[in-house]
Predict the structure.
Amino acid sequence: MTRQTDAPPLDDEAIEPASDATPKTASDTASRLSAPDLSTLPVAGITGRRMAIALGLLLSVWIVLMFARQVSEAAAASSRADMLVIENDDQAAHVAALSRELQQIQRQRYIDQQARAYGLGRTREIAFSLDPNAPPLPEDAPGSASVRLGTASDDGTPLDHWLTLLFGSAD
């Protein structure tokens, strides 16, 4: 809001002094002519309209920020729910695997096999084990692949074997 009074007098117009306030000296009259009239300037400061606009802007920004925060929290909750669904599926698969394992170990065949590992087989079974310090079998030991019937000796390189496999023998 601005306050305005009558327009200030021009320099060439004479100032008529008021009846009760007469200037006492010529310097008073000169200072009145050179001093600006402050009544024509706008009021500097916060007016009611500016305050309402500022509060409206502040309220709008606050509403937008709260809405954005709610949207981000909803997105985070949705992703957590998706993760929990996946985790529940994994747990259900794990429980199903444990259930199958439980059924497997309750079978009599499995129990007998585990009992044999401890030397508790049936009465007609002969328990045996290999000495942990036993040397490995030689390559020409009975039952090994090198002395089986029908085995051929491999004298070629791995590349020759691949080429024979892909394109057939050269013979």
Summary: The two ends are 111 Å apart (CA to CA). The mean pLDDT is 79. The chain is about 50% helix and 0% strand.
